[in-house]
């Protein structure tokens, strides 16, 4: 993802990617080897940490050999699944996946009953302790990928800073703001860059995983955060369509939603990550 064009990086890659999809997926179409390692792409925190816990503590007993491949962006894990470089990924929520598939012609799907956790989106600031204290013309950094940008704007709307046009959904941008009493200025950045932007902006709306990597706690440091109630942004295990019933995928789905993983999430993240099962 780049600052100027949301997930244009993936769009530009999609042409070449689409041409090679049949060849890239041909081996998998003939049937997966149930004894082969399951390769899973993930962002490092908390997804990579949760998968590493499963690999170290639970996988062997379940008869699963797990390989975790970490990525620091929100595009490569999906292109890697689509191209067959990995078997599955764990890093995204449904609105993001829907948008990605639509823009790239990919056919990645959520594994049923494998929604694992929610990372509450939070607003952080080095200059103010309350959103209401943001001054006129303050600059707010937001994620530049489509669904997370809309999610950030909806969080600001929920806290009374802006009002979006009626009916705006998961593709809202600053152009869809109907009312902006403080004349807030928005800086659109790749999600991974947001924590580093805090010294240059008045506030930033940061995804939970990147907040954790920057030692920011949505539960303790955010001046506003999403509520987990009825939240559509739970992160899940995803695969290329047709691979949902791979026995290895099913084993991992069961482990990801096990009591052991729920306890691991509760003990390690202290409310910064919330189990969704």
TrEMBL record:
<dbReference type="GO" id="GO:0016020">
    <property type="term" value="C:membrane"/>
</dbReference>
<dbReference type="InterPro" id="IPR004872">
    <property type="entry name" value="Lipoprotein_NlpA"/>
</dbReference>
<feature type="lipid moiety-binding region" description="S-diacylglycerol cysteine">
    <location>
        <position position="24"/>
    </location>
</feature>
<feature type="signal peptide">
    <location>
        <begin position="1"/>
        <end position="23"/>
    </location>
</feature>
<keyword id="KW-0564">Palmitate</keyword>
<keyword id="KW-0449">Lipoprotein</keyword>
<comment type="similarity">
    <text>Belongs to the nlpA lipoprotein family.</text>
</comment>
<keyword id="KW-0732">Signal</keyword>
<keyword id="KW-0472">Membrane</keyword>
<protein>
    <recommendedName>
        <fullName>Lipoprotein</fullName>
    </recommendedName>
</protein>
<dbReference type="Pfam" id="PF03180">
    <property type="entry name" value="Lipoprotein_9"/>
</dbReference>
């Amino acid at each position: 993802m780049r600052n100027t064009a949301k997930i244009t990086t993936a769009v530009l890659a999609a042409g070449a990617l689409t041409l090679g999809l049949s060849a890239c997926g041909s081996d998998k179409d003939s049937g997966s080897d149930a004894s082969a390692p399951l390769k899973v792409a993930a962002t490092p925190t908390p997804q990579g940490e949760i998968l590493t816990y499963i690999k170290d503590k639970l996988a062997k007993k379940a008869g699963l050999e797990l390989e975790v491949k970490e990525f620091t962006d929100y595009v490569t894990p999906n292109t890697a699944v689509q191209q067959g470089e990995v078997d599955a990924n764990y890093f995204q929520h449904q609105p993001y996946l829907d948008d990605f598939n639509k823009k790239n012609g990919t056919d990645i799907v959520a594994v049923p009953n494998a929604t694992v956790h929610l990372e509450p989106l939070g607003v952080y600031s080095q200059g103010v302790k309350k959103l209401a204290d943001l001054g006129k013309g303050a600059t707010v950094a937001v994620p530049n990928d489509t669904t997370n940008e809309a999610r950030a704007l909806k969080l600001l709307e929920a806290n009374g800073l802006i009002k979006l046009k009626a009916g705006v959904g998961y593709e809202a941008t600053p152009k869809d703001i109907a009312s902006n009493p403080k004349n807030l200025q928005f800086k659109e950045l790749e999600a991974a860059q947001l924590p580093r932007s805090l010294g240059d902006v008045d506030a930033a709306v940061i995804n939970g995983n990147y907040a954790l990597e920057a030692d920011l706690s949505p539960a303790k440091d955010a001046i506003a955060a999403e509520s987990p109630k009825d939240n559509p942004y739970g992160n899940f295990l995803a695969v290329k369509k047709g691979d949902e019933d791979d026995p290895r995928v099913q084993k991992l789905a069961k482990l990801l939603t096990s009591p052991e993983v729920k306890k691991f999430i509760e003990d390690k993240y202290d409310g910064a990550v919330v189990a969704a099962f």
